[in-house]
Design goal:
- There is one protein chain.
- The chain is an alpha+beta fold and 48 residues long.
- The protein is elongated and about 45 Å long.
- The chain has a two-stranded parallel ribbon with strand order 1-2.
- The protein has one domain.
- Helices cover 42% and strands 17% of the residues.
- The longest helix is centred in the middle third of the chain and has 20 residues.
């Protein structure tokens, strides 16, 4: 398998009140899981 480069930029939380666990479980958790899996497979992954 050829190593590929990935760049993930999760969306910013919407300003609908104070920051809460729902903000993290949305784009941040999904991005983290995908990035860790791709790194495990040997790909070059960056998350901003």
């Amino acid at each position: 398998m050829k190593m590929q480069k990935y760049l993930f930029i999760p969306i910013m939380p919407t300003p609908n009140g104070r920051f809460h666990i729902g903000h993290i479980s949305g784009p941040y958790l999904k991005t983290d899981i995908l990035a860790r899996n791709l790194k495990f497979l040997g790909h070059d992954v960056k998350v901003i």
